[in-house]
Amino acid sequence: MEKIPVVQEHTPPYARDGKFHVRLTEGRFQTLRRLSSWPMIALFFGLVWVQVDGQPWLLFSFAQRQIILFGHALSWHDLPLLAGLMIAGACLLFFMAVAWGRVWCGFACPQSIWTWLFIRIEDFTEGRASERARAEGKPLGGTRLLRRIAKHLLWIGLSLLTALTFTGYFIPMRELVSDAVQLQLTAGVSGWLIIMAGLTYANAGLVREKICLHACPYSRFQGVMFDRATRTVSYDTRRGEPRASMRNADLNSGDCVDCGLCVQVCPTGIDIRDGLQAACIDCAACIDACDTVMTKLNRPTGLIRFASEAQLEGECSPLIRPRLAGYGAVMLVAFGAVLYGFTGTTSLLVEIRRDRGALFTQQDENTVCNHYRVKVEGFTRQPEQVRVAVQGPGAFELFGPELIDLTDNNASWLSYRVCAEDFDLPRASLDFHFTGQTGSASKQTTFLTRGI
């Protein structure tokens, strides 16, 4: 019986005491990664400043109890739509995982994007990976100490900017910055900013790849989605083995010259030549590094490439297959349901409560009145006035503000009295109608008489 082969873990190059330094590389996939990540960074830092008619374009406002989503105001009752949007996004993530592995992690995940930003700051301040590795463990002093301080200051600055921007999606950014400049931030907001900045600093600067390996659930259940046709970053063993350096190569040697560049550029410190691993985020840095070496040696590129298990074994790898089609169908249905839900969002939110002081009052021998408290919230970007009316099986008369101004959207409770004459039924259904410029709403309540 054959024994299960044991894969020996390689110590990453430039590693000291478990710490390794990532070597930056260039190539078509790294260019593609920047083309996808830099617009996302620009949107994250830029959208928070965009205003339309003096209102933020994207804001989750606890104070106003509403969500402004790309200029469209939603009530907190519409939160299931955001949950549905997250579910649809998860379906898209699963669809991509079945087709191309963890390309989301390598090209668009915020953890990866911010890690690369911190690595570039480290490369800029303390030098290339080989220089940092040689200096690791030596006493800090002189220029090296200043570089280390500059690195951490830039890390802290970027972390604070990230925390401030993220908070700006819940508190209007201009208001937040003004309070910060004037040192008028509340203790709660200040604490939140410190916590968010600390988490960003730790995740992207100190912990890095350990988040992908130990904390991210996606790295654990991705294997359930993969099949033999899933294209992930793979090393072509049949072509590359047996590996040998240029000095020791012979006619039986493979194309891999064992230069180790594929490991040096890996942000998670793995050796892709050991096969698919949970820590691999499919960033394709090893592909670019290996292709550069192959080009210099006048050998075909693609020793490391996006390939499926079937392709590596010389089999046909179909693009469309049942599992991929299933995830695609679920994704389309989920996005369709969310888009349909956005067509029926709440423009007016109404709450009606009976006055607990008395079920009804007797005005005179023939007139009975009921007392109500009414609150109306508007979820539109335009100033609006709402007209209030009542309708029921009898002649009802409404006493209270006929027009409610929702300009400030203060959502205060207003008192109303509804009276009816010569009403013989013990109770009846009473409809409150609210009509505004952009929408209308109705709320049903009960009208009680002395006959109850």
From TrEMBL:
The 4Fe-4S ferredoxin-type domain, residue ranges: 247-275
A GO term, aspect molecular function: 4 iron, 4 sulfur cluster binding
Top-level taxon of the source organism: Bacteria
Keywords on record: 4Fe-4S, Electron transport, Iron, Iron-sulfur, Membrane, Metal-binding, Transmembrane, Transmembrane helix, Transport
GO cellular component: plasma membrane
SUPFAM superfamilies reported for this sequence: 4Fe-4S ferredoxins
InterPro entries, sorted: 4Fe4S_Fe-S-bd (IPR017896), 4Fe4S_Fe_S_CS (IPR017900), Cyt_c_oxidase_cbb3_FixG (IPR014116), Electron_Trans/Redox (IPR051684), FixG_C (IPR032879), Ig-like_fold (IPR013783)
Transmembrane domains' residue ranges: 35-52, 79-100, 153-171, 183-202, 324-343
PROSITE patterns named in the record: 4FE4S_FER_1 (PS00198), 4FE4S_FER_2 (PS51379)
Protein's name according to its UniProt entry: Cytochrome c oxidase accessory protein FixG
